[in-house]
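Continuing the batch. This is chain 6 of the set; chains 1 through 5 are on the previous pages. Same settings as before, nothing changed between runs. Recording input and output for traceability.
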Amino acid sequence: MFDDHFKSRYKTIPFAYVSNHYEREDNHLHGNRIFHQHKEAELLIIREGRAAVQIEGEEGKLPLEKGDVVMIPPLFPHCYSKEVDASLSHDCVCFDLSLLADRALAEGLGSGTLTLPAVLHAREAVTAAVYSHISAAVSACREAGAGWELTVVGHLSLAFAALKQSGLIRERGEAARDDFRARVGEILDKEYGEVLSSSAVAARLFMSHAYFCRRFRSAFGLRFMEYLAMYRVEKSKPHLTRTDRPVSEIAMLVGFKSFSHFTKTFRLYTGETPSAYRAARR
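Output for chain 6:
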């Protein structure tokens, strides 16, 4: 579910927060919440109590305690839940990455080429600095005194500077890219002949559509539909050279909606029509 409500909380800059408190008896927050996503980056600060968060790409739910900070990049689906019969107080901070002074860092986090740790636990040395700076940014926004916007921007940049200096902001690993390619490749190999869209594959991988498209282009070098068309053309070639099936039937078999679309696409990627390709290789 796409959640855009934080924009209504913006004042003069794209930064907003909401503070929530749930008593032990408020168990309506217990259990699985609906996954949601938004264009802003999100920082969840646990003030008191215990909870759990689940973020796309992370295995299972991540336990949270007082002092922990959750870091969610833009457009990553996520949900959280309160531990049953436990109180919970937290600040949910959302902001546009354009507020960061480091433009390369903002672009890398936005595109997914740079990664953040999902949770900074209170016991980790850098967490105190991040917690302090984000808390100061929230306080400045709440009080809205003269120059509060500059204070917010400054503390956000200092928080991410602490992460960068600690080596916790890293390039996405090659192993992760290979795993993504393998998972996408498995879906394409089984379903290329059926109706297939980038949004459908993204949903299968529990990713937002925007994040999937960025990651796909990074991993495969093409947009999804371009790659799928090329993939289907390659799958059609053995049928053209090893069988006597009509070209129109082969077109449908490999996933093209029409003979004309197949012919046009085949020529685009091979320089020949399907019939010419078949004749030259018989």
